[in-house]
Amino acid sequence: MINNFIGSLLQKPSYTLKKPAGFDFSQWESVSDWSKVVFPDGTKVIITKATGREGRGDYVDPTFASYYSAFKSLPYLRGAYHFFGNPTGAFEQAKNFAGTLLKNGWTKNDLAILDLEWTPPKNTDLPTGEKLAYQVKVWLDAVEDTLGVKCIIYTNRSFWSYLLDRAGNPPSWMKDYLFWIAWYPNSAYIDSNETLPLSMYPTGVTKDQVIGWQYAANWVIPGINYDGVDVNVFYMDKLQGIPTPPPPVVTPPQSEIITRRQLEITLTTTDPNAKLEIK
To answer: Is the pLDDT of residue 3 over 70?
Structure first.
């Protein structure tokens, strides 16, 4: 009853929906019956959160299983994301994400996405720069080795700056990835531009690497009684046939070397007491 009342108060945003459109979800939308959700014409992609939250790499979104199952019957490209909410323990986070997807009917036709937007608290010893970039690459390699597909990186210019080295350079491995970028301008900009300006690209990202732009968080979809849904435009030609990942090449800080072989052994071991060896 309350949700229906809230839903009746929601007003369509003043900007025009960009197409091909995509929407992303999590537990906050609280959708109980996806058959009653009316997506707008031009919708091509729907994505939902699988795992991760601030300080909790082992977290699983309580709505993921039901949302992901419901998405199977919808005529859209389906995807799942992990919120990188802890800049340490990347390997454990990767196992949680990949394992959760495989338990819930993930296929190689689906999108696997790493959400990088968490801001490290000030005055902490948490890793940034090359150390944080290395943790991110550990996550990417472990997920890609398990799922056999190349991941997409969702981020924004501000967070990406935490991955730059002391000279302001991005990690060398970023050239191998596609990016979905968040930047929220005013309605006038949305209506008169097909993509975000180069000045809002994360450092080092090129136009050819951008597969999507999240431009607002207040789209109204009938059947979802929430105060606005994240809305995106996706460049579908770049999403077709995302390549299988090449063998990863990582150059970590000397103090934090984890070999690819050690990752593979841990991923494939049947011994529940086995631990990742770090040399």
So the answer is: no
